[in-house]
Specification:
By secondary structure, the chain is of the alpha/beta class. It is 26% helix and 26% strand. It has 2 domains: 169 residues, Medium-chain alcohol dehydrogenases, catalytic domain (Quinone Oxidoreductase, Chain A, domain 1), CATH 3.90.180; 146 residues, NAD(P)-binding Rossmann-like Domain (Rossmann fold, 3-Layer(aba) Sandwich), CATH 3.40.50.720. It has 10 helices and 19 strands. Strand 15, helix 7 and strand 16 form a beta-alpha-beta unit.
Length: 355
């Protein structure tokens, strides 16, 4: 079978031949339909994130996948069922995090991530997986199934943000997304359509005309240019924010978020910055958090329940959003185009097969 693999930090992805996998007991064989490309893939390609499987010289990429069960192999799945795989797996047998259904809370060393850290991904014509890591989705969502994984990340972020405010009555009226990439735009749509938050904002660094700004405004949200209004100045220019979702990996935004939050607000951090030292007023930061009951939390990955919630959320989002968000779906003969970047590129995927 064909697969797309990379030697992290040593070059561009290439098309390789690999043996078609045979499912072990309790595993199903899945025929891949589409696999999305995101910022993590580019970090892996550049060698800034991730790691090879033991004994491998290349990593098969891809963690945002959708496929169809080719061989259910005696599992509780059915042949022909459309499924989305979760990303994390236990490195050796199992551990308490996976046994509790909380792989997303496992610390480093207690998991591998398919297509990212220590395990081959889903950018291949076929893959196998234990059935408990395959989430069925409706066939009518098959073309968009590669978006389930990124939406699940936001489902977890929202879940944890709400949980952090559960000790008191908290109903956010204003929400802000930091970052106008595909994940930020999907989250903005969830804030608007699924959570029905009254006022939403999205911060970026782009000039008009721009397709992401068009999406932001079509969602009824306000675009904020960070070059004109930094995060910590948003309350003075617009309003203080109840819920902030950070998806930039820009380290200063984590600090500036505290200033931008309204009393009782919560900021959720998802970006992964590189090393960067800069000066902050630590006393002011501490005081803001304490005197105004603010919270910052970090989150990564998601568990099966978040994937299931993501399927429901995707079905509620408007069709026009996907038409404008997904700017390219490419077959194997032109897979390189799926990894191209530019202001006209929002979300791409590689298509391996169709239903």
């Amino acid at each position: 079978m064909k697969a797309i693999a990379v030697e992290p930090g040593a070059g561009d992805p290439v098309l390789v031949d690999r043996p078609r996998p045979e499912p072990d007991a309790g595993h199903a064989l899945v025929r891949t339909l589409r696999v999305g490309v995101d910022g993590t893939d580019h970090e892996v390609i550049a060698g800034h994130h991730g790691d090879l499987p033991a004994g491998a010289d290349r990593l098969v990429l891809g963690h945002e996948a959708v496929g169809v069960v080719e061989d259910s192999n005696g599992t509780d799945l059915e042949d022909g069922q459309v499924v989305v795989p979760t990303v994390r797996r236990p490195p050796n047998g199992t551990n308490a995090y996976f046994e509790r259904g909380e792989p997303d809370m496992a610390p480093e060393g207690e998991y591998v991530e398919r297509g990212i850290v220590g395990a081959h991904g889903f950018m291949a014509e076929y893959f196998t997986s234990p059935s408990e890591f395959l989430v069925p989705i409706p066939k009518q969502l098959a073309a968009l199934g590669f978006l389930v994984e990124p939406v699940s990340i936001s489902e977890k972020a929202i879940d944890h943000a709400v949980a952090s405010r559960s000790a008191f009555e908290w109903e956010p009226d204003a929400a802000l997304v930091l970052g106008n990439g595909s994940l930020g735009l999907l989250t903005l749509a969830m804030f608007d359509t699924v959570l029905e938050i009254d006022r939403t904002y999205c911060l970026g660094r782009r000039d008009r005309p721009d397709p992401t700004i068009d999406i932001i405004e079509k969602l009824g949200s306000t675009y904020i240019d960070s070059r004109q209004t930094p995060v910590d100045e948003i309350p003075g220019t617009y309003e203080s924010i109840d819920l902030i979702y950070e998806a930039t990996g820009y380290a200063k935004h984590a600090v500036e978020t505290v200033e931008a939050l309204a009393p009782n607000g919560v900021g959720v951090l998802l970006g992964v910055p590189g090393p960067w030292e800069f000066e902050i007023d630590g006393g002011r930061l501490h005081k803001e958090l304490v005197l105004h009951n603010k919270a910052l939390l970090g989150t990564v990955n998601s568990h099966r329940g978040h994937f299931e919630a993501a399927v429901d959320s995707l079905s509620q989002l408007p069709d026009w959003l996907f038409e404008e968000l997904v700017t390219g779906v490419y077959g194997l003969e032109e897979f390189e185009a799926a990894f191209e970047q530019g202001n006209d590129v929002i979300k791409t995927a590689v298509e391996f097969d169709t239903l």
